[in-house]
Amino acid sequence: MDTADSVGTAATPSRLTARERARRAARGGGSRSAPAPLLAPALVAVAFLVLPLIGLVVRAPWARLGSVLSGSDATQALTLSLWTASVATVVSLVIGVPLAWVLARSSFPGQRLLRALVTLPLVLPPVVGGVALLLAFGRDGLVGRLLDSWFGLTIPFTPLAVVMAETFVAMPFLIITVEGALRSADQGFEEAAATLGASRMTVFRRVTVPLIAPSLGAGSVLCWARALGEFGATITFAGSFPGRTETMPIAVYYALETDPDAAIALSLVLLLVSVVVLVSLRDRWLRGGAAS
Amino acid sequence: MFAASSLLGTFTQLGKQFEAAHPGVKVTFGFGASSTLATQIVNGAPADVFASASPTNMQQVITAGDASNPVTFANNVMEVAVPPANPAAVTSVDDLAKSSVKVALCQPQVPCGVTAAKAFKNAKITVKPVTLEPDVKSVLSKVELDAVDAGVVYVTDVRAAGTKVKGVQIPANLNASTAYPIAPISKSSNAATARAFAAYVASPAGESVLAAAGFEKP
After folding, report:
1. Complex-level ipTM
2. Angle at CA B156, nearest 5°, toward B69 and B81?
3. Do A240 and B36 touch (CB under 8 A)?
4. Residue A256: closest CA among chain B residues belongs to which residue?
5. Domain CATH number, residue A254
6. Which of B104, B129, B147 sits opposite A139 (nearest CB)?
7. What is the CATH number of the domain that holds B32?
8. CA-to-CA dists, residue A96 to A102, A164, A171, B69, angstroms
């Protein structure tokens, strides 16, 4: 019986392999080539996504690029965008990572509702976020009214408003990425550290954070890129004034009416930044929060 | 129908009156800053008629070959709008030059921004706004929301906002005006109706609606 079985099992794999090989040969191209009904729409999607980018590169005023970008409005907008996006990312890290930890590692009533609320800005139209920020922190807003009467502080139309608007739309990206990483991280390491006598903050600092570092990095880059590209919330809450609150996307929008070449040049810069972001992330963010 | 933001109230009404007089015709509107609309038309936006708050933006469309034979149908002048409570106690246009007053203006390439700049030049003041908005209705809404102390808009906008804002007049000798031309778009697929609407706006019926809103005769 065993011999027959072993003969049978020994014979079957080679027969299957031969059959498999024949099947692959018939499909023509290896088992990973896409079936035609999927290939055609996929090509359409590629064309749709890539053609506008090609159009941007082709229509760019390459000869005038230097002079257009060194115009005062362009450098002001770029500088403002870069530092506000960075500050927004730092703020998101400081308050977002603890929130991600709370959502991933603790449980309390209403947790699911809290998670939904916290990730709402991801699906909320940005300009709605801007209006909401204005109603909360504007001069007549819920909190803004108190800030104005107690400290004489008005937030709208200041770089602080830009940072707040960018943080509002970008922080959920970081929270989701980090929460996913924390959920899928091996808690064995943290438990081992605790049993060895580390306090909870030490466990967090020396074990948890290094464990989720790749996702932390990917989440931060995503957060930064989202903050850099924000338009609707910033223009509604912070307004637009060159050098103070006019970020790159807003500058592009207005440049379309006054100097289309400048708009294209600025768009090219943003496109380059986006490409660098994607290349540096590679496929990490596509894998969600999985710790590698 | 692409029309400047400041024509929102009057043109919506004129559209309804035109539809009533021409059964089977539907008038739809795209309102926005004249500079934005002109750019869109030149880039192929499907407009049948263009009403601009400035001859400059109309010229942009004419130069691109998309319109011809504009007719000026109204004039408008500027006014300072303040929130009903007037938190910065703005009583004249000169107050806008004070650094403590938060002013919202239109972007410099938009007709209301151009005309406001002319008025400031006449008044010999330099105004440093806290924000430059995409069109005049955005300036108005910033004032209505009490997010700024004052905004420079058209007299028609102050009237249209009713009790939501208070107006501070700019003296006639300092004020600046802008002319509103209207023209059918050449590549419109409704050329006859477009011409008819443009003619209707410039007719006595149209003029009376515009005058009631505060527009001046062309």
Report:
1. 0.80
2. 135
3. no
4. B39
5. 1.10.3720.10
6. B147
7. 3.40.190.10
8. 10, 13, 7, 59
